[in-house]
UniProtKB/TrEMBL annotation:
Subcellular location: Cytoplasm, Perinuclear region; Endoplasmic reticulum
Subcellular location, principal: cytoplasm
Protein name: Phosducin-like protein 3
Gene this protein is translated from: Pdcl3
Key words of the record: Angiogenesis, Apoptosis, Chaperone, Cytoplasm, Endoplasmic reticulum, Phosphoprotein
Pfam families hit by this protein: Phosducin (PF02114)
GO cellular component: endoplasmic reticulum; perinuclear region of cytoplasm
Amino acid sequence: MQDPNADTEWNDILRKKGILPPKEKPREEEEEEDQIIQQASVVKSYEDMTLEELEENEDEFNEEDERAVEMYRQQRIAEWKASQIKNVFGEVGEISGQEYVQEVNKAGKGIWVILHLYKQGIPLCALINQHFSTLARKFPQTKFLKAISTTCIANYPDKNLPTIFVYFEGDMKAQFIGPLVFGGMNLKVDELEWKLAESGAIKTDLEENPRKQIEDKLMTSIRCTMPVTNNSDSEEDY
């Protein structure tokens, strides 16, 4: 009787027609495939592991796995360091005039700095300081600072307060001076967020200017209260 596992043309035809079962694989070949599948699943687990998990399971890896494990470990360390660098702030710092150059002009490469010059007793300044606290937590990669105006700039006029300076790598990129720029005490935190985002200092998730909605409603209200002229009556007068 002909061997059904023999590599013959006739057996191949019978296998295709389903008369003969699929050719049995040699045990060595099956073991090799099982090993490949097992290694693939182990490598997949490396990708899913955190840095702590890689360290905890270090004893379970064989010598062949060590190179892959080390690669993923270095990748996790790099990701962790990057996240730490991007989230080094998260709160509003208070500076004096002596710290201005170091904290603002020399903040570092790739660092945006937003500085609020304020003075106690000015309500809008207090409101912006509150908004700064909220925005500093939302955008921890940006350096939010505040300083009493006259400690940074001698004889800085109160009429210019609040004042916000935006710096990037030591260069001033934007400035907002005086209460009219901020719209007075009606300033909302998302409106300030949009204004700062336009300068490039933060990356907002707002899709449009919140102030625009207020302005559109105001214009609609004005149109509704304007007197309507009757063109037909005017023509009759002539």
